[in-house]
Design a protein that fits this description.
Helices cover about 80% and strands about 0% of the residues. It is built from 8 helices and no strands. It has helices at about 1-30, 35-40, 40-60, 75-80, 85-100, 115-140, 145-165, 170-210. α3 runs antiparallel to α6 (about 115-140). The longest helix is centred in the last third of the chain and has 42 residues, at about 170-210. The protein is globular, with a radius of gyration of 20 Å. The termini are far apart.
Length: about 210
Amino acid sequence: MLETLTLSTDHIFIFITFIMISWTGLFILCSVLSPALCCDWLRHYGHYSNISLTLIRLMGGQLTEEESPVSFPYKLYKHIRNTEVGSQVVFIRDSLVQISDLYRHDNLSFVTWDTDNTNRFRMSIDRQIDSLNTCCFCFQVRTNKQVDNSLRNYYRRLRARTLNRTGGSPGSWELIRKETQLHLEQLDLLVNSIRPSAAASRRSSTTSQQQL
């Protein structure tokens, strides 16, 4: 019994040590490289975006023409375009987190969407979130509280006035799918606007490293 306890303690110590070394290595990497080089997600975003947008269309049939009961936050996207790249990356990550949370609703089983494509869509969003968590660490930018509150309030209202109000009816899920596509398209435009500056930063950083 004592040997088992000792072994478990040793395993915990090794695991904690591994985590600390991993985070230390990531911190050193990001301190040496520019954020644009450290944030590999930006270079591969086009691939991720195409997958998510394709799957959101393939999940179900034709998108509904019904209007959302919550106005789309175009002003929020316009505002974030005027902020620094790091803040934009954080906004993209937080937006995808909110989208992911929508599809964790208990009544998702009521929809008639293709199960495989729906699961693949959810995984594609979660995969981007994981990559963006590293990017946010690279840029070392904290979430803007005002923007974060506006984003959370929007998705809270959207959930309350669609899924919660109807108990997750198929019609409310079709509205969510339509709004999801709109958000993915706006995020796509946002990323495309920051990729040129990120590419220039990568070239500058690579040149500096070659000169060292």
